[in-house]
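Technical annex, item 7. During the second reporting period the consortium partners agreed on a shared format for inverse folding records so that results from different sites could be compared directly. Each record opens with the tokenized structure and is followed by the designed sequence. A conforming record, contributed by the partner at site C, is shown below for reference.
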């Protein structure tokens, strides 16, 4: 519960990466995504949960215990069933995400050579 999230793209003269330009608006809407991607807003763990960036927030004093219990449970699930479910859940957007990632990478290469990025 003490974690924070802070994507500093704009203040570093860079642009979004990791498909965040597509996924953040999809997860939290354009306004909330803009706060993070454009204006570098730092958010708490609870705010990250509210914006669908994380699914759980644990108090710091039980974090280790809770995550170990979850990992043990996840490890007990049938692996092939999990793999198929994961594929079905993600395949519909795989091609689009590859395109978004490529566009972000192309933009980052340009940004890294810009005066804004160099002077940030």
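Designed sequence (site C submission):
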């Amino acid at each position: 519960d003490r974690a924070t999230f802070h994507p500093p793209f704009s203040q570093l003269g860079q642009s979004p990466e990791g498909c965040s330009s597509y996924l953040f608006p999809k997860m939290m809407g354009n306004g909330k995504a803009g706060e993070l991607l454009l204006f570098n807003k730092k958010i708490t763990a609870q705010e990250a949960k509210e914006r669908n960036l994380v699914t759980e927030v644990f108090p710091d004093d039980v974090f280790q215990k809770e995550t170990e219990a979850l990992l043990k449970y996840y490890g007990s699930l049938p692996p092939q069933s999990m793999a198929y479910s994961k594929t079905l859940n993600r395949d519909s957007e795989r091609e689009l995400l590859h395109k978004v990632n490529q566009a972000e990478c192309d933009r980052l290469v340009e940004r890294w050579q810009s005066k804004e990025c160099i002077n940030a």
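The radius of gyration is 17 Å. The CA atoms of residues 59 and 91 lie 34 Å apart. All partners now use this format for quarterly exchanges.
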